[in-house]
């Protein structure tokens, strides 16, 4: 690629050589790790079911929630860990530091827990400016304070120059799950109303705009933010929230497909009801992307019993992180494990699990 133009010929000047393609989708005869394996789509699912689950699978891991819920001393503790390899390190609205904190805090929130303690491990590349490291560290501390969590432990390693990407961050977190709360993907039921907490696609487009030097007429800012307070407001209405999911890698489409598969139900999405900011829609149209598959870092999808949906939606809209909340669909008994969208033209289309990530290395 040169000056934003994709080359259409191979080294020989003829048709492209498939071995040179960088698409995250796999070629069947190349059994190697691809970028798409980290994209939260079908390749990630295959990696889990074919490699990791056979190696250390167990009943707790098999739930495949955003965090694990563990019995401990008479209480239930939510525990989660995640690694962040975003490129570039800084983007409109945030950086790898606050992204790492918010991502783990939000994973705990998707089980109903408020983050209490975090660990933070950094892998630094030799030659990275200490001023950059300090800026990221301060962002981690500020984000943890905002989430009401304490960075209690951590680790640092350094790799040779050329063997890293400046900074990689891994965060883990723990928090208590309130009594009577049972939130997991298997609990989706036909009749549930599907809610989203606000406009989608902002994080992925914000990172892409900086990475590729693109301008879309207006500044697109990442939505990275902690969601623990929003979830607490929803639980104050009812503790019978069936499913919560933060649609990060793979976007809303991947989150809904994972829930449909885990619960054995179908999901009907109303495409026009999904709040997509104009700047995101324009950027996706220009780049040939589907906003449903673009990552978010400060949004959640909720499956709520119909009798509580109106009250939960009102509570979400009353909270700063849920001001743009909307009803986007429903859970149905038909077409189990499949997500379909009612289009603006009155038809329907299958919203499948993405193979990989449209925009790799954004979280």
TrEMBL record:
<feature type="domain" description="PurM-like C-terminal">
    <location>
        <begin position="189"/>
        <end position="339"/>
    </location>
</feature>
<dbReference type="InterPro" id="IPR011854">
    <property type="entry name" value="HypE"/>
</dbReference>
<dbReference type="InterPro" id="IPR036921">
    <property type="entry name" value="PurM-like_N_sf"/>
</dbReference>
<dbReference type="Pfam" id="PF00586">
    <property type="entry name" value="AIRS"/>
</dbReference>
<protein>
    <submittedName>
        <fullName>Hydrogenase expression/formation protein HypE</fullName>
    </submittedName>
</protein>
<dbReference type="InterPro" id="IPR010918">
    <property type="entry name" value="PurM-like_C_dom"/>
</dbReference>
<dbReference type="InterPro" id="IPR016188">
    <property type="entry name" value="PurM-like_N"/>
</dbReference>
<feature type="region of interest" description="Disordered">
    <location>
        <begin position="1"/>
        <end position="21"/>
    </location>
</feature>
<comment type="similarity">
    <text>Belongs to the HypE family.</text>
</comment>
<dbReference type="Pfam" id="PF02769">
    <property type="entry name" value="AIRS_C"/>
</dbReference>
<feature type="domain" description="PurM-like N-terminal">
    <location>
        <begin position="66"/>
        <end position="177"/>
    </location>
</feature>
<dbReference type="InterPro" id="IPR036676">
    <property type="entry name" value="PurM-like_C_sf"/>
</dbReference>
